[in-house]
Amino acid sequence: MTYLKKSPWIIHYDASSCNGCDIEVLAALTPLYDVERFGIVNTGNPKHADIFLVTGSVNEQNRQVLINTYEQIPDPKVVVAIGICATSGGIFRECYNVMGGIDKVIPVDVYVTGCAARPESIIDGVVQGLGILESKRLAMAEKRAGSRAKAGDAV
Q1: pLDDT one-digit tens code per residue, 63-122
Q2: Is 142 exposed, middle or buried (0-12, 13-18, 19+ CB in 10 A)?
Q3: How many CA atoms lie within 13 A of 107 on its CB side?
Q4: Distance CA 18, CA 57 (A)
Q5: For the segment 30-57, what is each residue's pLDDT rounded down to a tens digit?
Q6: Which domains does the chain have, with CATH numbers?
Q7: 53 and 25 Cβ atoms separated by less than 8 Å
Q8: What pTM did the predictor assign?
Q9: Distances (CA, A) of 105 to 61, 63, 76, 86
């Protein structure tokens, strides 16, 4: 699974933002910033994704969708919160229906701040996520090797 570090697939979810960060995520995918030079490919299927990019704050309407999408992404996975709304609720945090940032619902590995977050910052956050993804992959491999060794001892 070392391919994860070289060609991770991302999925993007807008959890009720103003679309400023969404536009910047799309800009990061264009030839100007060319995030594909790192082997990163955007997918629409969470079952194919390795990195989950989330923009916007969490409210009651999108909470379950966010959880379901997160659970469909196979392990190891990395979550990147993009923009001040995803990290803390942003300017919407005082609204009656806003629960806060996405870390109130799912675990977050990388926080990319800004309103709106710049494409350079988003790319930097994804690249940081690549390192986290690789360390999670190694931890899973060690855990599997340890469980196999214990199973061999029991026989």
Answers
A1: 999 999 999 999 899 999 999 988 988 888 888 888 888 999 999 999 999 888 898 999
A2: exposed
A3: 5
A4: 10
A5: 888 888 887 888 888 999 999 999 998 8
A6: 3-154 (3.40.50.12280)
A7: yes
A8: 0.85
A9: 13, 7, 18, 11
